[in-house]
């Protein structure tokens, strides 16, 4: 059985193999101890929020987690229903709790479940906290003489009220009720189900609303290969109603990641959405603050930040690094290429429903399709690009070590016919090439997977560069 190890956001494992009741109890015990040590003095609290998504047995594992926390002498606010992970981060902060333990595996395939640890401040705990939790696993805690209390709570009401206050809701509602905008929401059988309708209180077309622990045979990840139904709906609507606005919003399994589909049926990743959101917040809402991006973020992001005279900060991949920055600095927006985007006016947490509301507000106030907004931004700064990412599964961890050693001792000086002009190593190896394109080679921390990211001026360049990276990896595995 694999050791319990936290990844970029929490611990995840295959249900009944790695993710068992006994192991969940161990992690919940260790996490509660470290949350109390880390945030108990500042909050004066003895309460932990426990929540869950719609995965197989998620509520059962949540109940077990609550009982473990209670046995340690802490009070528990146990969710009475599934909800987005950001709703539990909000609850931790809003309820002045020590933090939240959320049973979710986010965008992972159906066989997985996981546990995310959120701090009292309302975001993912930083790496030093997860390291303390891992170390604490070797030191089991003893049950308290006086157990705490378990109380159920509604995770939706306060959270939805907070999100409504962030946008001009009337401008969105009016456009929808007048028939000028049709909103499709693909919730991918996940925890965002019903969320946008609750907030907007006007008709939208929600897809994949039912609870399906198998996620239709795919995974609840906002990627084009899982969105064929949404593409069909939008293209059919386009043929039937030319001249009106339409948008598709996509939410991952626990609603902390977002993607979109424009009115023509084209997929829009967060590499496209983040520049649109920066422009909307800075120009229409007149908000300011630092823009935080991970190293895998598009080169358009710093150019848009510069256009609006906003400072920029770059972090390793993982929203916990962005959250850490948001706690200490005035941030406008922090975003990652995988779809996690958060805002300085909210909690330091990625939040797909809030991102959806800002995108709808941008459409309502501009009267433009998302792709039109993006194209206008590209024209303003004179920069166009194409981005893609692939994951390459390796034969084992030995091959991973061999490739890592190759990068450390003999990094490439030329990639796909282009000279390497710079290499950034804060997270993996990001090679900047002579033609302005870049390739990022990065390893998964918990499995033998090589992640390859590329941005270039044409789809052909991206494809060729990624193929070069795959060939390089296959040659050097031995």
What's the quick description here?
This protein is 38% helix and 22% strand.
| Share of residues in strands | 15-25%
Radius of gyration: 22 Å
Structural class: alpha/beta
| Estimated helix fraction | 25-40%
Poorly predicted regions: none
Q: How many E strands?
A: 21
Shape: globular
Terminus-to-terminus distance: 27 Å
- Count helical runs: 15
- Biggest sheet, strands in spatial order? 1-5-4-2-3-6
Average pLDDT, rounded to a whole number, is 95
What does this structure look like?
There is one protein chain. The protein is of the alpha/beta class and 478 residues long. Strand 17 and strand 18 form a beta hairpin. Helix 1 crosses helix 2, helix 9 crosses helix 12 and helix 9 crosses helix 13.
Structural key phrases:
478 residues; alpha/beta; 6-stranded mixed sheet; 6-stranded antiparallel sheet; 15 helices
Secondary-structure map with pairings?
Blueprint: E1 11-14, H1 21-43, E2 47-52, H2 58-71, E3 75-79, H3 85-94, E4 99-103, E5 112-119, H4 127-136, E6 150-153, H5 157-164, H6 169-177, E7 181-186, H7 195-200, E8 205-207, H8 228-240, E9 245-251, E10 258-261, E11 267-268, H9 270-284, E12 290-294, H10 300-307, E13 312-315, H11 319-328, E14 331-335, E15 341-343, H12 352-366, H13 370-381, E16 386-393, H14 397-409, E17 414-415, E18 418-424, E19 429-433, E20 438-443, E21 449-456, H15 459-476
